[in-house]
Amino acid sequence: MFYPIEFVQSIEKICRKNKILLAFDEMQAGFGRTGKAFGFEHYNVKPDLICCGKGMGGGLSLSAVLGRAEIMDLPDVGNMSSTHSANPLVCSAGLAVIEEIEKHRLIDEAARKGILLFNALANLQDSYPNYINRVLGRGLIAAVLFRHPITGKTNALFASRVAELCMQKGLLVVHTGRESIKIGPPLTISDGALLEGVSVLGESISEIIGL
Q1: Residue 79: phi, psi to the nearest 5?
Q2: Containing structural domain, residue 186
Q3: Which helix (H) or strand (E) holds 90?
Q4: Domains of the chain: total
Q5: Distance CA 58, CA 94 (A)
């Protein structure tokens, strides 16, 4: 879910006025996923700290906290150490991820493919307006929220059935355990595979409804 730009910018002003650190969780939104290098860039604000992980390691366990030097240098030497800190293998993977993102312009590609994805999901919502409540996200991260066609209430069971049928058809989506499923394809996915995935999602919804 993306908040209104004015809302986040207002939070930044409050933080600056009251000397509060502004931190962004970029675990999922970072490293090109939303069509920008980091999610906070959609709001035209400047955070003090950002927390990164997941896509940062290209599948290996790698995370980091990035921030201004005057903040990051506050702890004494050794106070921020950990057993797996600066593991050379995963750090090498992290460098390779950055090189691939730059080499193949994956940030721009995520933005472009995001338009394809959300146009296709919007068409899907138009086809099943009584079942799909909302489509959220940006770039190559999306959430499809389902509702009951009669009561209009959230429908976690329907989301679970959709996710399971998608899996049986060869498409892996994330069932959140609530009324939504999450879609997060590789940044390198082809246009054809991306649209095929949405098509399979639509087939699954249609079959469960019984159309």
Answers
A1: -75, -20
A2: 106-209
A3: helix 88-103
A4: 2
A5: 7
110 with 204, same domain? Answer: yes
Task: Place 210 in a pLDDT band, splitting at 50, 70 and 90.
Answer: confident
Reported as type and span, the H/E element at residue 188 is: none
Token pair in block for residue 17: 């006025």
Same domain, 48 and 64: yes
Return d(Cα 188, Cα 92) in angstroms, integer: 20
Cα separation, 197 vs 182, in Å, equals: 13
Shortest CA distance to 64 belongs to which of 44, 35, 90, 34?
Answer: 90
Same domain, 59 and 133: no
Q: How far is residue 129's CA from residue 135's CA, in Å, rounded to a whole number?
A: 11
Find the length of the chain.
211
For 198-206, what is the mean pLDDT? 97
pLDDT value at 106 more than 80: yes
Mean pLDDT along residues 106-132: 98
On whether the pTM is more than 0.85, the answer is: yes
Q: Are strands 132-138 and 64-67 parallel, antiparallel or unpaired?
A: unpaired
